[in-house]
Design goal:
5-stranded parallel beta sheet; disordered N terminus; Rossmann fold; alpha/beta; 4-stranded antiparallel beta sheet; 240 residues
C-alpha cells in the first residue's frame, strides 16, 4: 500500500517539518500491516516544481512506535493528548512531569500552564484543545472535584467520546464526587457526576505520591497513551 501526502509529518523526536507541495514529496510506502509498530517514510526533496520524476535525494526515517498511523500522517491534530488536572495538586508534580515526558517522546500534550499564553481566552483555548486531541488524561487528585474547570473539561471529554485514561493520584475513586457548592447549576452538577462515574468505570492507574515510583508512573502512563493513540488513529478514517 502506498499513500501520497502533503502534510505535516513527525519523523523523529525533535523533528517536525511543514511540507510544501512545490518543494517536497512525502511518500509513505510498504505499509503492509496497518497495525505495525513502526512506519517508514521516505522524504523526496525536489529541485524544482517540474522535477517530480527527477532523481531525488532520499532520507529514510523511522516514526516512533507507529504513532503516525497511515491516515494520521495526512492531518495530525495540534495536540495529541489533553492533560486534565487540578493545578494546586499536580501542576508541579505529575502533570508537569508527564507533559515533559510525552514531549520527549515527540507527542504533543496540552497542559494549561505550558500550552497557554497571555491573552488566550481560557474556555476557548481549553475547549478547542479538547476537541482537537485524540486522548485525554484525567489526573484525579484530592481537590479535583473542587474545581469547576476540571469537571467541565472531564465532562467535555466524555461528551465528545474521547478516549480517557484516568490516573488516581492520592485519591480513591470512591472519594470522587461533584458537590453543588453554588458555583454551578444542579444540571451541571449532575452532568459532572455522570462524567466522574463514567471515568470510574475505565481501567486506570493508581498512584501514591508518598511511596510510588515516579519513573514507573510515567512509563505506565505513556505506554497507555501510546496504545490508545494507535487505536484511535486506526479508528479515525471511519469516523464521521
Amino acid at each position: 500500500m502506498s499513500l501520497l501526502v502533503y502534510a505535516r509529518v513527525s519523523a523523529k523526536p525533535g523533528f517536525t517539518q511543514e511540507t510544501n507541495a512545490a518543494n517536497h514529496h512525502i511518500k509513505i510506502e510498504e505499509l503492509t500491516d496497518p497495525k505495525s509498530s513502526q512506519l517508514t517514510i521516505k522524504t523526496v526533496k525536489q529541485t524544482s516544481d517540474k522535477s517530480t520524476s527527477a532523481s531525488p535525494t532520499r532520507e529514510e526515517k523511522t516514526v516512533f512506535e507507529g504513532f503516525c498511523a497511515p491516515f494520521h500522517a495526512i492531518c495530525r491534530p495540534s495536540y495529541d493528548v489533553f492533560i486534565n488536572h487540578r493545578r494546586i495538586d499536580t501542576r508541579r508534580t505529575v502533570a508537569g512531569l508527564l507533559h515533559d515526558y510525552l514531549t520527549r517522546l515527540d507527542l504533543r500534550p496540552f497542559l494549561d500552564s505550558r500550552s497557554m499564553r497571555p491573552g488566550d481566552n481560557l474556555f476557548d483555548k481549553i475547549d478547542s484543545a479538547i476537541l482537537d486531541c485524540r486522548i485525554g488524561v484525567a489526573l484525579f487528585s484530592p481537590s479535583y472535584c473542587d474545581s469547576y474547570f476540571c469537571l467541565h473539561e472531564l465532562a467535555l471529554m466524555m461528551e465528545t467520546k474521547k478516549k480517557v485514561i484516568p490516573i488516581f493520584c492520592d485519591v480513591k475513586p470512591s472519594q470522587l464526587r461533584a458537590l453543588n457548592n453554588g458555583t454551578c447549576s444542579e444540571e451541571e452538577t449532575q452532568k459532572f457526576n455522570s462524567a466522574i462515574e463514567e471515568a470510574k468505570n475505565i481501567v486506570g492507574i493508581t498512584f501514591d505520591s508518598s511511596m510510588g515510583d515516579w519513573s514507573e508512573l510515567l512509563r505506565d502512563a505513556s505506554e497507555a497513551i501510546i496504545k490508545n493513540l494507535m487505536e484511535a488513529n486506526q479508528d479515525w478514517p471511519n469516523e464521521n
